[in-house]
Structure formats: C-alpha cells, structure tokens
Amino acid sequence: MDSRTVRWEELLPREFRARQDQMPLVYLPLGLCEPHGHIAAFGLDTFKAVWLCEQAASRFGGIVAPTQGYQIHETGYHRPWLKEVIGDTNPNLGSVPPDVLLRMLLFQLRAFVNAGFRGAVLLTGHHGNQADLRIVAEELMTLRPIRIVTVSDPELARVAFHGDHAGKYEISQLLFIRPDLVDLDRAGDISTSPLGRFAQGEDASEATAGYGREILEHSLEQLERLIRDSLPFEDAIDPLGIEETDEIWQSILARRGEWRTLSERNPDLAREA
Ligand SMILES: [Zn+2]
After folding, report:
1. Most exposed among 214, 219, 220, 264, judged by the fewest C-beta atoms under 10 Å?
2. First to last CA, the chain
3. Residue 241 CA, ligand 1 centroid: distance in Å
C-alpha cells in the first residue's frame, strides 16, 4: 500500500486508482470548530477525526476524503449545553443547521459512490450527531449496496475510555497528535478570563500525550474491527444521479422527527465530546 499520501486531494490519478483497487474504502473525517477551553485549539474534534482516518487508511488501506470543520450545533440539545458551558460569550463556532449538513453529507456519499468507492467510514470527532449521520447512511444504503460505517470517536474508545468535552480524554489526544496546539499553563484562565470556563473540562490539567496515544491506538483497533466486519464490499456499484439522490433526501426529510439534533434530549450524549 505504498503511496506518498492517503489523502484524496494529494493523490495523483495513478496513485488514487492503485489505492482504490487495493481497498475501495473512503474515510470522511468530520470535525467542528468549537470551544475547547483556554488550553486547546478550536479544531480539536477535527484533528482527532483526521488523525484516526489517516492512520486507518495507512494501516488498513483506503483513501481519506477532504475534511470539514463545520458541523451541526446550536439546535436541539446543543442549545442548553452551549448556555451552560459558554454562557453569553461568543463561542466562535463553525456551526451549521442539521438540514444543511445532512444534505451535504448525502451528496458527499453520492460523490464517493460515483468515484468508485464501495465502502465508507464516516468518523465524527464531534460526538452526539452520529445518529443523524446514520440516518443519511441508512437511506442511501437502501438504494445502493455501499457499506457505510458511521461512528464517533468516543464510541470507538468506549468501554476502555470514557469520552468528555475538553477534559483529560480529549486534551490528551490533541497533546499526542498536535502538542503545539495545547497550552496546559492556561488551565487557570477559567477563573480570570472574561470568557469564563469556555467549555473547558474539569480534569483537563491531567491530560498527557501518553494517555492520548493509548486512547487513539485503542480506537484504531476498534475501527479496524468495524471495517473488517463490513467486508466484503460489492464488486461494483451503479452511479447515483442527482434526481435519485434528491429522492433519498426526501426520505431523510420524512424522518425529521427522528433527528436527534432537533431534539431537546440526546441519549448518546453523556457529557462526551
Ligand atoms: Zn471536542
């Protein structure tokens, strides 16, 4: 599986085909710019998702699609959470409403099918939205036999590690992936800064790169298991037209009552990232 890079946007056509022939699997890392306390960069969720996808593609095969730092926030259960951990301060969020993100995701999946992929991993570093991402994946899979694994990083780490928001769990991972984006010396700013807590986790100061590495390696093992479980892929999948994709969108809209991101309660959210 030798090529300089696993990233779709960096691959030359011959390298892309060679990687895809070996493993027709695409990874979509989904991130979000949101507050992670005074000690960590806004893009923490994105860096986790990208790292896991790039490592998985390097180790197990496949190609990583371009990521995005925008995701669903501010609606449903997100709203009281923001009020609680941010207050009236500007959260500097990369937030979009559910219908915008889910429709975009549907057309991203269409692009993957039409580019020749027969398996996809949707990996969100922003925990809580994955149930809605799964609705999009499910509805597309009723019309095309692509195998789609949809998962959040705390779901991968679960059992061995408990997810959090900007606490020891998340900050440790960023410390391992991008130590230059963490400044633990600023942990005390929660009591002096006009920004207040800024969504910082209570045990953030206990973060270590070693603990982050343990979480990430465990998560990769779980991801490999999910990928292996989704094999074998179909030999070929018919391309999806725009009109047909719009029909899938209507089915997704018809399930709007199930969208967790519009609901005041989210059973997936137990103070995890
Ligand atoms: Zn996070």
Report:
1. 264
2. 33
3. 35
C-alpha–C-alpha distance, residues 158 and 176, integer Å: 19
Residue-wise pLDDT for 15-58, tens only, equals 999 999 999 999 999 999 999 999 999 999 999 999 999 999 99
Beta bridge partners of 63: 26
Q: In angstroms, what is the span from residue 39 Cα to ligand 1's centroid?
A: 12
Residue 57, both tokens: 């593609």
Using CA atoms, how far apart are residues 89 and 264, in angstroms rounded to an integer?
Answer: 22
Q: Where are the domains of the chain?
A: 8-161+219-262
Handedness of CA 2, 9, 236, 143 (dihedral sign): positive
What spacing in Å lies between the alpha carbon of 44 and ligand 1's midpoint? 6
- Ligand 1 center–CA 226 separation, angstroms: 22
CA–centroid distance, residue 45 to ligand 1 (Å): 5
**Residues lying with their CB under 5 A of ligand 1, a single-atom ion:** 44-45, 273
Instruction: Pinpoint the alpha helices (H) of 2-97.
Output: 13-22, 44-60, 78-86
Q: Span 8-161+219-262: which CATH code? A: 3.40.50.10310
pTM above 0.85? yes
Strand partners, 40: 182
- In what side-by-side order are the strands of the sheet with 147-152? 63-64, 25-30, 119-124, 147-152
Spatial separation of the C-alpha atoms in residues 53 and 59, rounded to whole Å: 10
User: How many Å lie between the centroid of ligand 1 and the Cα of residue 192?
Assistant: 23
Cα 126 to middle of ligand 1, angstroms: 6
The CA 130 to ligand 1 mean position distance, Å, reads 14
Q: Which residues contact 231 (CB under 8 A, 6 or more apart)?
A: 119, 147
User: What pLDDT score does 267 carry?
Assistant: 84
